Amino acid sequence: xxxxxxxxxxxxxxxxxxxxxxxxxxxxxxxxxxxxxxxxxxxxxxxxxxxxxxxxxxxxxxxxxxxxxxxxxxxxxxxxxxxxxxxxxxxxxxxxxxxxxxxxxxxxxxxxxxxxxxxxxxxxxxxxxxxxxxxxxxxxxxxxxxxxxxxxxxxxxxxxxxxxxxxxxxxxxxxxxxxxxxxxxxxxxxxxxxxxxxxxxxxxxxxxxxxxxxxxxxxxxxxxxxxxxxxxxxxxxxxxxxxxxxxxxxxx
Length: 252
Ligand code: PGA
What we know:
The chain has eleven helices and eight strands. The model has no long low-confidence stretch (mean pLDDT 97). The protein has an eight-stranded parallel barrel with strand order 1-2-3-4-5-6-7-8, surrounded by six helices. It has 252 residues and is an alpha/beta fold. 42% of the residues lie in helices and 15% in strands. The structure holds 2-phosphoglycolic acid (PGA).
């Protein structure tokens, strides 16, 4: 059975003032029957980790370099995230793919480096608005999945997030049928390539998830949780999303 996962992506938000939100959240959701992952900026990983010690909440990074170490000014390696207390890292987020021109080859190299450092890779895929309008969504997502995931990917090492680029931070979301179509397609593709392991890989939806739409999204087949941006910054909102996830029907 796939364990539900709610992941919060703080993006480039948060300073030490944000730690009280973490304390509030951990008090709200401690003991819930799902995994809760907070991905703060790298500068806060150590402090968030201390803040959630003993609660079961997980802490992750938002990106890591494909090299293990070396002359890469300003970058952070997967081993450094691991050393700081992270267990997971988001890779291939559309903001990285756009802002830093990351392609599938680079994302795959980053995933391999993250796995070598002992992190779980949370790999993001998703189409742009133009691609959806051109009815290319499944082709784009299929290509990104094929290119970004290394051979030997398993449920223990990789989580996939479907995040339509046009839904991120916009308040817009695909219809329930559209989300279900993409998640079903991803499940088929992962099972075809990775066999039983592919059937166990958790699939998250991301893009304008909020308390008001979470329950409907979590009720869809093959949606095992969410990657939440803006709404993860407030403990009350993220906590309500986590409550909706726990209440959602479990995948058969
Ligand atoms: P959003 O961001 O929830 O603010 O739309 C999601 C994400 O980019 O992971």
